[in-house]
Design a protein that fits this description.
Number of domains: 2
Mean pLDDT: 87
Number of helices: 10
Radius of gyration: 20 Å
CATH topology of the largest domain: Fumarate Reductase Iron-sulfur Protein, Chain B, domain 2
Number of strands: 0
Distance between the termini: 37 Å
Low-confidence stretches: none
Bound molecules: iron/sulfur cluster
CATH architecture of the largest domain: Orthogonal Bundle
């Protein structure tokens, strides 16, 4: 685990998130570990820890959170948020951090590749002849290789 360097502390970041309607206040965190103990990703990989994210927020470690890979391990299952005794929007906070990282173009290669596929073809997985043959056999209509409507929506972003 990296040591916390006081120069990395960003009080504006704490103020911005703690007063945001999207994330809600997080400063009431009791460090009770309820979020971590119920987290399925933590069970599979104890390097991932939602409480650690909350502590990093408390210390204003914006660059480390936004520029690192940890937030991207969250599976968005909302268990932590539903269990938090203080009503802290843990998952919404992590999603907000992901959005901030995306705006700052700090996305892991897997995520940026999926983003490019969505922009190029309107879907992540190409529907090819093989898929359409299986659909025909199942009595389903064929699907286009590219989803033009989704592409158009993403072009507006
Ligand atoms: S469950 Fe809530 S109060 Fe407890 S450590 Fe996690 S965020 Fe903090
Ligand atoms: S939403 Fe993310 S941090 Fe919360 S329990 Fe699920 S995987 Fe863990």
């Amino acid at each position: 685990m990296n040591r916390i360097v006081s120069e990395d502390y960003d009080p504006d970041f704490i103020e911005e998130l703690d007063s945001s309607e999207i994330t809600g206040a997080f400063s009431g965190c009791l460090a009770c570990r309820t979020c971590t103990s119920g987290c399925p990703v933590h069970r599979a990989n104890n390097e991932y820890d939602p409480l650690r994210i909350m502590r990093m927020l408390t210390f204003g470690l914006k660059d480390e959170l936004i520029g690192g890979d940890m937030i991207w391990l969250c599976s968005d299952c909302y268990t932590c948020q539903e269990n938090c005794p203080m009503g802290i929007k843990v998952t919404d906070i992590i999603n907000h951090l992901k959005n901030m990282a995306t705006s700052a173009k700090h996305t892991p290669i897997g995520v940026s590749t999926q983003e490019k596929l969505l922009k190029d073809q309107g879907k992540i997985y190409i529907i090819d002849d093989f898929d359409n043959k299986k659909r025909t056999k199942a009595g389903l209509p064929p699907l286009p290789e590219i989803n033009e409507e989704a592409k158009k929506l993403l072009e507006k972003r």
